[in-house]
Amino acid sequence: MQSVAEAPGNSIVEINQLRKSYGANEVLKGIDLNVKPGEVIAIIGKSGSGKSTLLRCVNGLEVFQSGSLTVDGKPLLHDSPAAMRALRQRVGMIFQSFNLFPHLTVGKNVMLAPALVKSRDAKTGAEQAKKLLARVGLAEKFDAWPDQLSGGQQQRVAIARALAMEPAVLLCDEITSALDPELVGEVLRVVESLADEGMTLLMVTHEMSFARKVSDRLIFMHQGRVHEMGPPNELFSNPQTPELKQFLSSLHD
Amino acid sequence: MVEFSVWDIFRNLLLALRWTVVLSLIAFIGGGLVGLSLLIARLSKKRGTETFVAGYVQLFQGTPLLMQLFLAYFGIALFGINTSAWVAASVALTLYTSAFLTEIWRGCVAAIPKGQWEAAESLAMNFGEQLRYIVLPQAVKIAIPPTVGFLVQVVKGTALASVIGFIELTKAGTMITNATFKPFVVYSCVALMYFALCFPVSLYAKTLERKINAVRR
Predict the structure, then answer these.
(1) Which residues of A touch B134 (CB under 8 A)?
(2) Domain count, chain B
(3) Which of A159, B13, B107, B199 is deepest in the core (most CB within 10 A)?
(4) Tell me, what's the pLDDT at A73?
(5) Does B126 touch chain A (CB under 8 A)?
(6) Contacts of A12 (CB under 8 A, 6+ apart)
(7) What CATH number is attached to the domain comprising B137?
(8) B212: exposed, middle or buried (C-beta count within 10 Å: 0-12, 13-18, 19+)?
């Protein structure tokens, strides 16, 4: 099903025959995926198809049983804290439930990890945090607490926080699913601007029109496999498999 | 027969109160340190630690403190080590306190949403950093009321050390009763002193709770 030509070697994320199970229940049944730098990939599929699990495997939040995964040429080794620390500095993640640290101000949320992991000094860290918050349109919220912000604002802080680590790849796990409908747009606009600036994005999403507009490649997952993959327009207008056809038609009901 | 004034009784009880305070402090600090180490060991998910800590907690929660004091007092002696009531009471109370505290704190850590760990982990923080900067600061806030509640129990629990001959407030009360034949007066004074010890602790906890919550705003 790998219709899109992929030159191995210059991939930023390389996934080979990745298998993952919870007990006897295999949720990922041999995933192959190469992501080129700057590529925007949208992953769609029914709940339980393994799309979130796949994303969480990329930064090691989930442990997989077999197969290999490399980011920026660095293999993912669960048992090596040093390797995981190196890898996670290259991979940022944004969650459905934002997961801001409620006991820290917005500014500290953004500055904490770079200070600890990259030993960035306080002054540089604050400057960078202000710059990133301005980029997501929240410059004035530096000293605010997370619970004073709307969901959309919290999610944009979470994006700034992830960017502060200067990742090469950003994973977005249904980042607008917990938002009120009127707040979805402001978050998607930020993501779109990141895509325009050349950030490599892997996103699980239910926003089909957004996926169609922004992504370079669309992946339809079904029962733990990459069921169909290709340019979004092609997949949306001309789905090849009955499963994708059914999935797309169910969206319009 | 010698007459004892209420002041005589009170004064002598006050002298014994010191040892209740010292024993309580030993139990707090020792139990707190051991309890925290056990908590960290358990959270690190290293092989076997979870079972070990769970067993440890069950052992000390499932047996009376009185028996633990006896066993510490007579048990350590079995190994040919010369124990005093001091050592036995300190050891028993430290272990007892640590078992309860580690379990209380584990509950507080478990109350922190999993997403907090995951967000910290995704930002490349290691286990120690996740714990120190993200999880513990949030857990401490919810841990204060149950921790203080238990520490008040420990203050009162030190009374049991009297059975192995440790002269603290309760033991002193018994001895003074035997000399004065005024059990009601003596034990009233003893009860008052326990209250005077425990009440400020609870009061301080309330202030602390308010202070920690105020930092946010």
Answers:
(1) 101
(2) 1
(3) A159
(4) 87
(5) yes
(6) A35, A36, A37, A39, A71, A72, A168, A169, A200
(7) 1.10.3720.10
(8) middle
With respect to residue A2, please indicate whether it lies within any of the assigned structural domains: no
| CATH code (residue A233) | 3.40.50.300
Pairing of β A91-94 and β A169-173:
parallel
B42 part of a folded domain: yes
| Pair A6, A13: CB distance under 8 Å | no
Q: How many CB pairs under 8 A join A and B?
A: 62
Could you list the residue range(s) of the whole structural domain that residue A91 is in?
Answer: 13-251
Instruction: Report yes or no on A93 lying in a domain.
Output: yes
Instruction: Give A-chain residues touching B113 at CB under 8 angstroms.
Output: 97, 99
To the nearest whole Å, the CA of A228 is away from the closest chain B CA by 29
User: Is B2 within the bounds of a domain?
Assistant: no
Mean pLDDT across the stretch B25-45?
A: 95
Helix (H, G, I), strand (E, B) or coil at A198: coil
Q: pLDDT tens for residues A76-97?
A: 999 999 999 999 999 999 999 9
Residues of A in contact with B216 (CB under 8 A): 103, 145
Identify which has the larger pLDDT, B167 or A126.
A126
Tell me the two tokens of residue B183: 């059990």
User: According to DSSP H, which parts of chain B are helical?
Assistant: 6-43, 49-61, 65-78, 85-110, 114-122, 127-129, 136-157, 169-180, 183-215
| Rounded Cα gap, residues A151 and A174, in angstroms | 14
ipTM of the complex: 0.92
Q: How many domains does chain A have?
A: 1
User: Residues in chain A whose beta carbon is closer than 8 A to a beta carbon of chain B?
Assistant: 59-61, 81, 84-85, 88-89, 91-93, 95, 97, 99-103, 112-113, 116-117, 145, 158, 161-162, 165
Give the domain extent around B56.
Answer: 10-212
- Report yes or no: B127 at the A interface, CB cutoff 8 Å: yes
For residue A247, being part of any structural domain is answered with yes
Q: Which of A6, A57, A9 lies closest to A31 in space, CA to CA?
A: A57
Counting runs of H as helices and runs of E as strands, what totals does chain A give? 9, 10
CA B70, B75, B77: angle at the middle one, nearest 5?
115
Query: Would you call B123 and A161 a contact, using CB atoms and an 8 Å cutoff?
Result: yes
**Above pLDDT 90, what percent of chain B?**
72
Question: What is the residue type of A133?
Answer: L
In this prediction, residue B215 carries a pLDDT of 62
For chain A, the first-to-last Cα distance in angstroms comes to 28
| Alpha-helix residue ranges (DSSP H) falling in A136-241 | 151-163, 181-196, 208-214, 232-237
Q: Which pLDDT does position A253 carry in this prediction? A: 66
In a domain, B128, yes or no: yes
